Amino acid sequence: MKLSDAIGMGANPPSWRCYSTRARCNPPAHNGAGFTAGQGAGHVGGMSSRQVYRFQRGEPIVIGRRVLSGDPSGFDASALLKSTSGYRIPAEGDDAAATFLTEFVDAAEDEPAHWLFWIPAEVAGTLELGRYATDVKFMRDGETVLISDPAFIVIVESISG
Question: What is the C-alpha to C-alpha distance for residues 82 and 138, in angstroms, rounded to an integer?
Answer without folding.
Answer: 18
